[in-house]
Amino acid sequence: MSETTNDRAAWLKGGDAQCRVPPPLKRKPRRLVLLGAPGVGKGTQAELIHERLGPCQLSTGDVFRAAKSSCEGERSPALTAALEHMRRGELVPDSTVLDMVRERARCIRCHGGFLLDGFPRTVTQAEALDRFFSENGITLDAVLSYELPIEKIVARLSGRRTCEKCKAVYHVETRAPRIPGVCDHCGCGLVQREDDRPPAVRIRMDAYERSTKPLADYYRGKGLLICVAAEGSPEEIFARTHAALEQRGI
Ligand code: AMP
After folding, report:
1. Is the CB of 218 under 6 A from ligand 1?
2. pTM of the model
3. What are the structural domains, with CATH classification, of the chain?
4. Residue 241: CA count within 13 A, CB half-sphere
């Protein structure tokens, strides 16, 4: 069981927001990046890695979704434009994403480590992250790349449902909630993300192919890439992930 509440307030809200329970000092910090096409099961693995190994899931997509439910008057013009890109399934411009991550840099410096999910998404973002690491004396432990054939990805995305409130992820067939349409954790309603609908899915897969795949090559070149087959149940995929990390002493 996790020792933190995983409310990720500092990451999701930015500014001066504090997490309710900071990560314990004693646990070995892991500093990881997760890669994988939308729908490959990366978010589910991030939750399992957080629960069992400790680092918080820092998802840039979650920050944008949190901003979407904020008051329109509170959003900067850049954030409003970013949400429009997101609604169409396109990538948000690098400069906007990097500003947003910079505002939350203390989460990357956190003594509990981090699990970056959905960032970096382009080589430009990865290079900016590397500069941040070297300026702050931070070493990345590994980049986990989850891999699955495209037709299986499409099937997973169309059945995915997300909790409106706590963002827990379910699947109508393979990870069904106890009560259909209701979150097991907080009892709120489950919804299909706008960008999980077919037209946006196609655009997202294209964006992934063009922008994100070169990232795997970038991290392979640095000796950090660990490829994990994303077939099977979440537990099986987690067991593969854990074994690969242990093998490298991470
Ligand atoms: P995700 O939940 O990671 O699939 O992200 C949902 C959407 O947020 C993406 O389709 C993009 O529009 C946007 N987004 C999230 N992270 C990034 C990023 N690092 N770079 C560009 N766009 C992003």
Report:
1. no
2. 0.83
3. 29-231 (3.40.50.300)
4. 30
